[in-house]
């Protein structure tokens, strides 16, 4: 199956101007600048003229709760699973699933089954083994064997630190688990990343620093998220990134979280860049279908709202239109940087040999006209 997307104003993510993309099955076979001979034409090739519409890489979301999350207010507050239709329209073509607070009524088997359901619908899906608590819940009996033997499992997460819902892990526990995930990742050709849920306790990211200081594990083996949830955590996150770590900002939010001081994700990106944080150390994730709970000062549950997968594309637009970040730079935060951290070199870029995951943007405003995943159009507006 060959498809030729003609006259695309291409951001790969670098701006390449008007180009033609040849898709062979699931991958990009060629990118040809306008005016150069087309690589193929004729019968058997579906040609689609995009008439100068902007084309960007499909988004890579490193934290999605495929099977729902939360339940901190009881069974009536469990959030729903991610629907395929919502995922296809979101612009996110690569999703990494995680368990969260609840690893009792939700399991790694649930997570893996949902990942394969979404993949059958056309998306690319991966998972983290484990959850907030330690010892980690696994499918095969250990973190290492999950990563080595199950193709979808690429790391460990979402392990909670500085949060009253976690297991209060010690630095030595974090270092040992990171070493296990890292070694398994090396054996399997995966990242072995340890994805970290960061709460609002005053310890912030210090447990990760202590784990790195007391071991041979680099800070970049950890990928802490929710760094924009409080002003103090945000400032600590900037220091963490300057020290060699990665930081991930959450795009889903609520009025209550913003009122409590959360830094909106696009603003967090702009402020981090202004503070001269290396851009490749910054990523965005949606925290989709997680519960976004609110607790009072006594840590009593007040209420929650679910995270939304569409918030990642919305935050990308806010980076560009509200904060003046060039589109080619902003794309990295929502796609390429996560792909690099997760060791997915075929994602987050539009170049020969990469997966044909791309978004065709609407002519006006900030909206998605088409979503292509693995060489197939899976969504078109209207």
TrEMBL record:
GO molecular function, one term: beta-aspartyl-peptidase activity
Key words of the record: Hydrolase, Metal-binding, Metalloprotease, Protease, Zinc
Superkingdom field: Bacteria
Every Amidohydrolase-related domain range: 55-361
Record note on cofactor: Binds 2 Zn(2+) ions per subunit.
A Pfam entry, by short name: Amidohydro_1
Annotated InterPro entries: Amidohydro-rel, Metal-dep_hydrolase_composite, Metal_Hydrolase, Metallo-dep_Hydrolases_sf, Pept_M38_dipep
Record has Protease as a keyword: yes
Subcellular location per the Swiss-Prot or TrEMBL entry: Cytoplasm
The EC number(s) this enzyme carries: 3.4.19.-
Keyword Hydrolase carried by entry: yes
Cofactors (names): Zn(2+)
Modification after translation, per record: Carboxylation allows a single lysine to coordinate two zinc ions.
Enzyme class of the recorded protein, top EC level: hydrolase
Function according to Swiss-Prot or TrEMBL: Catalyzes the hydrolytic cleavage of a subset of L-isoaspartyl (L-beta-aspartyl) dipeptides. Used to degrade proteins damaged by L-isoaspartyl residues formation.
Similarity remark: Belongs to the peptidase M38 family.
Protein name, UniProt field: Isoaspartyl dipeptidase
Source species of the chain: Billgrantia campisalis
């Amino acid at each position: 199956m060959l498809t030729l997307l003609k006259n695309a104003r291409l951001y790969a993510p670098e701006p390449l101007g008007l180009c033609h993309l040849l898709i062979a099955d699931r991958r990009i076979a060629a990118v040809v600048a306008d005016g150069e001979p087309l690589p193929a034409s004729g019968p058997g090739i579906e040609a689609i003229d995009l008439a100068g519409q902007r084309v960007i890489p499909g988004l890579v979301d490193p934290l999605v709760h495929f099977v729902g999350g939360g339940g901190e207010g009881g069974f009536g507050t469990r959030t729903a699973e991610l629907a395929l239709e919502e995922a296809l329209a979101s612009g996110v073509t690569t999703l990494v699933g995680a368990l969260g607070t609840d690893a009792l009524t939700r399991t790694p088997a649930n997570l893996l089954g949902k990942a394969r359901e979404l993949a059958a619908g056309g998306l690319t899906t991966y998972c983290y083994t484990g959850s907030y608590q330690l010892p980690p819940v696994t499918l095969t009996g250990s973190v290492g064997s999950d990563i080595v033997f199950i193709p979808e499992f690429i790391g460990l997460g979402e392990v909670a630190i500085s949060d009253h819902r976690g297991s209060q892990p010690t630095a030595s526990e974090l270092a040992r688990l990171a070493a296990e995930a890292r070694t398994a990742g090396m054996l399997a050709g995966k990242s072995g990343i340890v994805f970290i849920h960061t709460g609002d306790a005053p310890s912030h990211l210090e447990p990760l620093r202590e784990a790195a200081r007391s071991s041979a594990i680099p800070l970049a083996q950890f990928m802490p998220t929710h760094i924009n949830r409080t002003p103090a955590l945000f400032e600590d996150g900037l220091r963490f990134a300057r020290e060699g770590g990665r930081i991930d900002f959450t795009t889903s939010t609520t009025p209550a979280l913003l009122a409590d001081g959360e830094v909106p994700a696009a603003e967090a990106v702009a402020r981090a860049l202004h503070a001269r944080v290396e851009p490749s150390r910054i990523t965005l994730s949606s925290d989709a279908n997680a519960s976004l709970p609110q607790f009072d000062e006594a840590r009593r549950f007040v209420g929650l709202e679910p995270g939304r997968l569409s918030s990642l594309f919305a935050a990308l637009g806010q980076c560009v239109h509200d904060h003046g970040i060039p589109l080619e730079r902003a794309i990295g935060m929502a796609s390429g940087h996560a792909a690099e951290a997760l060791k997915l070199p075929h994602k987050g870029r539009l170049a020969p040999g990469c997966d044909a995951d791309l978004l065709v943007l609407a002519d006006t405003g900030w909206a998605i006209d088409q979503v292509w995943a693995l060489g197939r159009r899976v969504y078109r507006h209207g």
